[in-house]
Prior knowledge:
Largest sheet of chain A: 6 strands, mixed
Strand content of chain B: under 5%
CATH superfamily of chain B: MetI-like
Distance between the termini of chain B: 29 Å
Shape of chain B: globular
CATH architecture of the largest domain in chain A: 3-Layer(aba) Sandwich
Number of strands of chain B: 2
Helix content of chain A: 10-25%
Number of domains of chain A: 2
Number of helices of chain B: 13
Number of strands of chain A: 20
Low-confidence stretches of chain B: 280-287
Strand order of the largest sheet of chain A: 6-7-8-3-9-10
Radius of gyration of chain B: 23 Å
Strand order of the largest sheet of chain B: 1-2
Oligomer: heterodimer
Helix content of chain B: over 70%
Mean pLDDT of chain B: 88
Low-confidence stretches of chain A: 374-386
CATH superfamily of the largest domain in chain A: P-loop containing nucleotide triphosphate hydrolases
CATH architecture of chain B: Orthogonal Bundle
Shape of chain A: elongated
Number of domains of chain B: 1
Largest interface: A-B, 24 and 19 residues
Order of helices and strands of chain A: EEEHEEEHHHEHEHEEHHEEEEEEEEEE
CATH class of the largest domain in chain A: Alpha Beta
Largest sheet of chain B: 2 strands, antiparallel
Distance between the termini of chain A: 39 Å
Structural class of chain B: mainly alpha
CATH topology of chain B: MetI-like fold
Number of helices of chain A: 8
Amino acid sequence: MGEFLEFQGVSKRFGPVKAVNNVSFSVKRGEFFSLLGPSGCGKTTLLRLIAGFEQPDSGRILLDGQDITQLPPNHRNVNTVFQNYALFPHMTVFENIAFGLRVARRPKDEIEHEVMSMLKLVQMEDKAWHLPSQISGGQKQRVAIARALVNKPSVLLLDEPLAALDLKLRQRMLLELDLIHDQVGITFLYVTHDQGEAMSLSDRIAVMHSGVTEQIATPAEVYEAPKTSFVASFIGDTNFFDGIVSSVPDDDYCLVDIPDFADIEGFNGVLCYNDKKKAVGGRVNLSVRPEKFGISIDPPRRQFAHMNVLRAKVEDIIYTGNHTNYWVSVGSRRIAVYQQHAGYLLDEKPIRWGDDVWLYWNADNGYMLDDEAAPDPGLGDNVKGV
Amino acid sequence: MSTRKLREICATAPSLVWLTAFLLVPTLMVLTFAFKKADPMGGIGTEWTFATLRSLANPSYPAIIWRTIWQSLATTAICVAVSIPMAYYMARTGERTRRFLMVLTILPFWTCFILRVFAWMSLLHPHGIVKNILVALGMADPSSQLLYTSGAVLLVMVYNHLPFAILPIYASAEKFDYQLLEAAADLGATRATAVMRVFIPGIKAGIFAAILMVLIPALGEYVIPDMVGGPASEMIGNKIAQRVQNDRNLPHACALSAALMLFVMGPMVAYLFARRKGGKEGGRFSI
């Protein structure tokens, strides 16, 4: 598996806005690769650059070793599934799918055969002679995918393909997309702002922010080991701890003094895994996912080698069935804690509002970020959403 | 009768009365008078006759009818061909340019039609500016004639009817989803193919409206050939005007009008009927 689609220092401006700023990365053959980020992060521009609808101001785009930067869209072996499908309204489903083959002047019986097998792949055989206005959103989506795939592109570009569908349909199409990718085996480049879609479909994700790729990694890596505070807060929820290294007891761990915790009695720093080899006095921005915490009324029974234990006060509880979200205050901070209910015991002392609790987590679950300050302290102390 | 139905009738009544009084009745009058005898005083006689219709077989008419058809079709074709790129540009450009072009399109209407044709007469005049420029560029012979030719008629007819083609085509082009052109390019189509197979079918309602808006008045045109055309560029409209104004023969004028009307409406009604029967897209272009 070599590098198949390659970006080399690609930049694109729209007036004063740097939509894509010196982006370099590569996608492997057959990979399901996602560009994930909020609106305006440059992910759609990047996709349009690959499709050829836009020309980069600088940099090169290579497809299978060939420089395609200057090629017009109709000479690129990539096809796009548009966000609003962009089906030709005056053509039947069959003619929509056949369009690419007709333009390529393929023989008639071959077109018939190819289109029919595509219709079969997306389970739309019975709608072949309908107009786009006569089929539902989910069906249009399938036609759009079939219309792109029938040309056997090297890369299939998908621009927020599920955004216009309702939740149930989105979940079903998600599974179907995954299945189609497995069946056709070509490279998928998927643009989305929905972390759930990106996480569940992708082999790898590029998290984009303000025109740059913040992190390119597998879904698990992006979630468990975010590189920057943007990635940590955009993918899932997290707690940020901003502090200064107070001591480095051994090669692997360091103690971080958190100013917000200064008034806690007996607090002498948060232990964290020192993968960035920070020295005493170095600034640390730590991300700890809410589900990594343990919370209990009684002191934690088992002690781990590198455990942080703090006293906290419960401020808010939201019970959601499969887990409970707590907001607890520690020092002058609010921290989000998500608890799974695996092994729930009915006779266990329940945690209530205003209870004093023990909060603990393994130092290995705190992740040092590249950037030293959280982007915005925000709601409930750096915890977004519920 | 439900109140809803009553309300519908009340709402439709004014336009129905208007159309009946000023369109249906005059049309029927024209058709009826074609079968009347001419009154020597210039009015309509009382006797019925087929003589007027028979006089249409006059050998000078086929040539004039043929010229009317091709002049009108050529005007329509040129107007539509010019309007499509114009409408595309107007739909895609910025708000300021769009408004400017729109004003340019509509501005000529603020001047009297006759004055505009007079303006063309002075432009095309043997000593006019167009002629002088063409001669200076060596593109025209000093002795050649610009004014009083079929070419001049076509030019002024295109000029005069162009807004009627631009406006409906622009109305369609404005609503067109231009991502479809990107989709076509994405699927391998060249720009020309994308325009022919996606853009033009996408704005066909506007094109169809433009054809009607240009072709119908063009077929009945008589002022322009009268003013900038020569004796060899007369159209059927001129003949009708002559029958009314010079010969004072209203039945003959009516017969010519009726023939023209049937000629225009016949194919159109047949076309609309065929469309409706064809089913699939029926009703989408109910004009």
